[in-house]
Amino acid sequence: SRFVLLLFFFFFQAEDGIRDAQESRGLGDVYKRQVYGTAGFRTKAELLDSTCFRIGVLAVLRAIKQGKPVGIMVTASHNAVADNGMKIADSSGGMLAETWEKHCTALANAEDLREALDAIVEEEGLKDELLDPEVCKVFIGRDTRPTSSALKQLCVLGVEALGGTAFDIGVVTTPQLHHVVYCYNRKDERHWASVKGYYAKLSEGYAQIVGTANADGPLYVDCANGVGALHLLPFNDKLQSQLEFKLFNADVDHSEKLNVESGAEWVQKGRVPPTHLPEELPPGARLASFDGDADRVVFYYFELENGGFQLLDGDKIAVLVADFVAELLAEAQLEFNLGIVQTAYANGAAHDYVQAKGIECPYAKTGVKYCHAVADQFEIGIYFEANGHGTAIMKDSVVAKLSAVHEDCGAITPESPDDLVKKERALRQLLGCAKLLNQAVGDSTADAMFVEAVLAVRGWTVQQWATMYQDKPSRQTKVGVKDRRVVVPIPDETRLDPDGSKVSKNIQEAIDAACAAARGRAFCRPSGTEDVVRVYAEAGTEDEADQLANQVATIVFEMADGQGAKPELGKWK
């Protein structure tokens, strides 16, 4: 074993050895201040040489701190192909702990690397920790961007510079990287800690849910010309007639097409289909769009009568998941603490539907890491943002209970009572849910397969799913302000905090009055990156939602020192 601090010497030697003397683009150079957030680091690819190397180093320190391997994913998700980025998958398989985000930011931007590393080691109590070869492993994956291979290699060099071992798992989706870390660090699931294991686990879970049911025709998947296109067809081979994916926008050989007028971001934000659709779509076809790294998914279809585009976003997926799981729990005659977590942006109709079913439905601050944290407080916690990023978390204690009760059911025979047959089937399906749904992060492949499984089991068309509830008309816009910090929301961002500032108190009182008059719902929240305040409004009709949004935007403009043009009805930002 070797001490961490003794390896710093080799780290600095490695960094100096990779410098480009002519262009001075060595790994010690910092080109632009970068901040590590929910998406990790993300910027122009040419600015990430130093950052990738240093994050490789930091990943080793995180593995030492956790006592388990971690991962790094090189991707910029739904961004344009010129961008890239990277993020750390924690030893849990989930996102990096928020307390370590500051270390990423500090190390990436440090001029004095020795001082920055010393500070992290001191704060985290790592000075006397030993390097355990079983612990200091970092799994590294990358997407299909042309810059990802070189940036991945810089991450590898950073890992090795601090004495760690890097395992390159290849060109994978972001959820696959998280899956590998999650399964590797759970001894009973380590046999699934590979891409092949990913195919096997999801296929087994799907089969457990659907039983003998088959999907009603194929699911047409827009892959945004990204990495998801490489990892869907193996499921066709494994599941045969029970599930079929047909891919479009799946050209990974021409990187300039990545995320261009396609993918979940394009469809959900613009509420329009991808520009390039399959040439022939059968009437009533189900379609889905993944984003560039395959961690988001939204569904849609075209109306039979007039060809109108109908979107089923993350809210619709969340409600379907919650409704199905609650139904299975009732059939299994079991009670667990079930909740569905939404952000303030979730459509009010989805919130009302779930509450009417008796399912807890708390709000969380905008951002998938905040939703995940609140969902983790439930025995079964479901969360999806409207953009299609989400999953359902089932605690180990829940899975253990389901397994025990299922075993107690014994073998089902033709003579078995109907209630026992129904109970055993529900238990088997719940265990399939735990296997299919990614327990660490949002996963467009797993989520799409889950939706397909529910529709197959229920014998539903996508149109029947869409009618579970009718979205309330809504409108989003934003207002430029001098200083967004005067607008202070409460933790879940559904309202402003009257104790946060006098401006917040006055704005919220005015919003309350406007909502009461319009019989609607509205809120505003400051942007996390720029001096703007974002506004969301819902009402009974589109015109009323537009008017309420404009009224709230005007309130913010007038009370929070608005900048630029005053909000105007019909001119949305």
List keywords for this structure.
573 residues; alpha/beta; five-stranded mixed sheet; 17 strands; 41% helix; 16% strand; disordered N terminus
Global shape: globular
DSSP strand content: 15-25%
Rg (CA only): 25 Å
- Helix count from the secondary structure assignment: 18
Considering DSSP H and I runs of 4 or more, what fraction of the residues is helical?
40-55%
Low-confidence spans: pLDDT under 50, at least 5 residues?
1-28
- Report strand order across the widest sheet: 1-3-2-4-5
- Overall number of strands: 17
- Structural class designation: alpha/beta
End-to-end C-alpha gap: 57 Å
Largest sheet: 5 strands, mixed
Mean pLDDT comes to: 92
Description:
This protein has 573 residues and is an alpha/beta fold. Helices cover 41% and strands 16% of the residues. The chain is built from 18 helices and 17 strands. The strands form four sheets. The protein has a five-stranded mixed beta sheet with strand order 1-3-2-4-5, with helices on both faces. The chain has a five-stranded mixed beta sheet with strand order 7-6-8-9-10. A four-stranded mixed beta sheet has the order 12-11-13-14. A hairpin with a 5-residue loop joins β13 and β14. α2 crosses α5. The longest helix is centred in the C-terminal third of the chain and has 19 residues, at 418-436. Mean pLDDT is 92; it is low at 1-28.
